[in-house]
TrEMBL record:
SUPFAM superfamilies membership: P-loop containing nucleoside triphosphate hydrolases
Gene behind the chain: Idnk
Family that this chain belongs to: Belongs to the gluconokinase GntK/GntV family.
Pathway: Carbohydrate acid metabolism; D-gluconate degradation
Protein name (Swiss-Prot/TrEMBL): Gluconokinase
Originating species: Notiomystis cincta
InterPro entries registered for this protein in UniProt: P-loop_NTPase, Therm_gnt_kin
EC number: 2.7.1.12
The keyword Nucleotide-binding belongs to this UniProt entry's keyword annotation: yes
Amino acid sequence: LGWKFYDADDYHPLANKKKMAEGIPLNDEDRIPWLCTLHDILRREDTSRQDAILACSALKKMYRRVLISGASAIESKQPEQPGENPALKILFVHLDGPMDIIAGRLEKRTHEFMRPELLKSQFDTLEPPSAPENFITVSLEKSLPEIVLEIESTIL
């Protein structure tokens, strides 16, 4: 697509990386500043009219709201109203699949701090997207080319 790509893991502060490397799951207090940093990156790209893709485990609805609105999403506990213009227009792609498939892929991945034993805590934290969030759900049981095609056809 010619879009900029960002891997959210590259922006975790050292304390978060250390915690995960020790097998300790992150909590909201660990994640919110990281998500605010990611929001700032997306805002910068939006301001320069550059489309971007961010690979990020935005596990909770609140985390996705922070990506859209930044720190103001935390201060405003109000639910989004239909017709509201969020700070950023983001399409969330929820890659959905059983834990065993994701665990198998995670084990094949070389990663400095995301240990396979943290996967269960991510499933425990997960709040799948729902209306009125702007999202699609794509099954991880499909082949990689099928997954990419489904996402591209939705974007384009």
